[in-house]
Design goal:
The protein is low in regular secondary structure. It has a single domain (1-182), classed as E3 ubiquitin-protein ligase SopA (Pectate Lyase C-like). It has 2 helices and 6 strands; from the N terminus they run E-E-E-E-E-E-H-H. The chain has helices spanning 117-120, 147-151; strands at residues 14-16, 34-36, 54-56, 74-76, 94-95, 114-115. The strands form 2 sheets. The protein has a 4-stranded parallel sheet with strand order 1-2-3-4, with no helix packed on it. The radius of gyration is 19 Å and the shape is globular.
Length: 182
């Protein structure tokens, strides 16, 4: 990606419950850095090398990740609502149980990334989420991968439910082992 990075100040970056609100981490070498349960609201990680970085249970709404290399990063239970992820390479990254609502993913590459289906595409007509596929567009300039293709937007099917009549589970005396039966 030809990232122009600041020199790394420490070999191991391990921070737990740290507060870094609106801090400048832009163009940083954060390969393998670990931030657990940190408050990183509004911080700037643009142009940074975040390969294999771990953000676990971090609060990161409104962060700027534009142009970052996030390959194989691990972001579990992270709040990224409203983040700028334009042009990121997040191939192989893991976003399990992360909040990706209102995230700008223009020109991003999520090839083989693990993203909860309801975050990528609305799973039902009553879904409260603003899925990534709704605003996904463009092609990543470094990988040449189409953003919508990398998210699987056109392959994911919207869940229509199991009882289309009234969206309720039909329960009968014989429908379960919890008291039904003959």
């Amino acid at each position: 990606m030809n990232l122009k990075l600041k020199p790394r100040e420490q070999e191991v970056i391990l921070e737990t419950k740290a507060e870094h609100v609106n801090e400048d981490f832009s163009h940083s070498d954060l390969v393998g850095a670990i931030y657990t349960e940190g408050d990183l609201r509004g911080s700037d990680f643009s142009g940074s090398d975040l390969r294999a970085a771990i953000f676990s249970r971090a609060i990161m709404p409104g962060v700027n990740l534009e142009g970052s290399d996030m390959q194989n990063a691990f972001l579990d239970y992270v709040v990224l609502r409203g983040a700028n992820m334009r042009g990121v390479i997040a191939s192989g990254a893991n976003f399990v149980r992360s909040d990706l609502g209102d995230v700008d993913v223009t020109n991003a590459d999520f090839t083989e990334a693990v993203i909860d289906r309801y975050q990528a595409r609305s799973i039902s007509h009553w879904s409260p989420y603003d899925p990534l596929c709704d605003g996904a567009s463009g092609v990543n300039e470094f990988t040449g991968v189409d953003t919508r293709d990398s998210l699987g937007c056109d392959r994911l099917k919207r869940y229509e439910g199991f009882n289309k009549e009234n969206d309720k589970v039909k329960v009968s005396k014989e429908s379960g082992t919890w008291g039904g039966g003959k």
